[in-house]
Amino acid sequence: MCDHGGRFIVPTGVLRKLAEDDSLPAQSRQAIRESIAVEAAWRGLRNAHTEAVQSSLLARRIAGLRVAGVLASVPAVTVYDCKNTQSLPGSPVSNPGKSSDITAQRAFDTTRAVVDFYRQCFGRNSVDDAGMTLMSSIHYGVRYDNAFWNGSQMTYGDGDGQVFTDFTKSDDVIGHELTHGVTQFTAGLDYSGESGALNESVSDAFGAMFHQWRRKQTVVQADWLIGAGVLGPVAIAKGYTCLRNMAQPGSPHCLSPQPSQYSEYISGGDPHENSGIPNRAFYLAATTIGGRSWEKAGKVWYAALTSTDAHSSMGMDEFATLTRAAARSLFPRDRDVYRGVDDAWTRVGIPASDISV
Amino acid sequence: MQYIIERRGGFAGLKASCTVDGDALDRDDRETLEALIDSKEPFDRDPGADRYTYVVTRESPSGRTTREIPESVMPRTVASVVTAEI
Questions:
Q1: Is A302 helix (H, G, I), strand (E, B) or coil?
Q2: Of residues A34 and A9, which shows the higher confidence score?
Q3: pLDDT at residue number A23
Q4: Does residue A148 register a pLDDT over 60?
Q5: What is the mean pLDDT of residues A287-295?
Q6: What would you measure as the largest C-alpha separation in chain B, in angstroms?
Q7: Which chain A residues are Cβ-neighbours of B28 within 8 angstroms?
Q8: Is B50 in contact with A146 (Cβ distance < 8 A)?
Q9: What is the 8-class DSSP label of residue A160?
Q10: For residue B51, what is the nearest residue in chain A, using CA coordinates?
C-alpha cells in the first residue's frame, strides 16, 4: 500500500470502503482511516482560507490589521525535508538559509526573493496578500521528477539525475509554484480547459518575470525559457534547452512543445499544453512594450488576475479583455501599453471582441 | 492480466507511460490498484497545481477498464515504474 502522507481527495465513501476492505493489509486500512479524518480537517482549513481571501473578507480588514500589527509585514519562510519520502511536510530544517544542504538554502533564499518580488513589484504581501507563511518541502520522494503546489505549500523533488535535476535549481520554477498560490487566492482559476491553461500560463509569466527581475534583465536580454535550469544531462545531450519557451512555444528544443495560436488549442488538453497560447501573448506584449517585463506588461497581467471581474472558469478571451482594460486604466497616458497588449492577443488569435473596452 | 499506465501533468507536462504485468507488482500494491480501479465513485483531482494524474487501463480476459487516478492515492511502487521517454 502506498505512503499516505500525501493529501487524499478521494471521495470519503471510497476511502471508507477501502478502510473496511479485509483484503487490504491491516496497516493500510488503518492508514486510510487516519487519512479520512486528517483530510477532512485539512480540506476544511484550506478551503476556508481560500474562500475568505477570495471573497475579500480579509481584504476589507487588511489595512486596519496591518496598522494594528496583526499581520506579518513580511511572511515567514520555512523549509522542511521529506528525506526522500512522500510524507508532507517532512522534518523542519532549522536555519535553512545557512543550511549545509544547498537545496534547503536555495529553496529558502529563492522563496524569500519571490516574496520581495511580489512586494516590490506588485505591492503583494505573500500569496494570500495577508502574510501567509510560505512553506517548502524538499527532497520529496525518490528521484521524483516534479515540483508542485498542493494548495497549501510548495513541494520539490530531486529529479532523476538524467532527464531532470533538483527542481529548486531554476528560480523560475519556484516563482511558478508560488504564483499558483497567488492565483488560488485571487482569480481561483479552475485547473482544466482554458482557465487551466491560463492558470499555468500566469505561473510561467510571473516565474519568468521573477527570473528576469533577479537579473535586472530587459525584455530583450531575457531568454523567456521555463525550466532551463532543471534539465538533466540526458535531456541536454539530446539538444533540449528548456521545458517551455514563451517566445516560441512550439520550438523543438522544448521538452514540452506547445501550441502558440488559439486556432491550435487542444480540446481536452493538459493545462501545460494550452498555456503556450497565453504564454506567447505575454511574451509579445512585454517585448512590444519594451523595457522590463514587470514594470508594465507584468502590472497589466497582475491587475487582470486580481480584478474583481476575474472568475474561476474564465476563458482566454475574458482574460484578454481584462488585460486590455487594465492596460488602459493603469497607463492612460501611455498608449503603447494598450497597443502592445491588444496586438499581442490579436496575434495569437484572440482579437478584441468590443473595441470600446 | 496487465496494466497500461499513463502519467499526465506535473510541472513539466511531460507524458510518460508503461505496460506492466500484474504478476510483476507487489501483491499489496496490486490489490490496492484493483480496489481503486473497481471503485464506483470518480476520484477528485489532487488539490493545487502541477500534480501528476495516472490513467490506468486494466486489460484482462474479461475486458478493459480505464480509470483516472490522482497521484496521492496511486501506490508508490506502481507509480515508480512509469518513466518519461524523451
A1: helix
A2: A34
A3: 59
A4: yes
A5: 98
A6: 38
A7: 1, 24-25, 28
A8: yes
A9: -
A10: A148
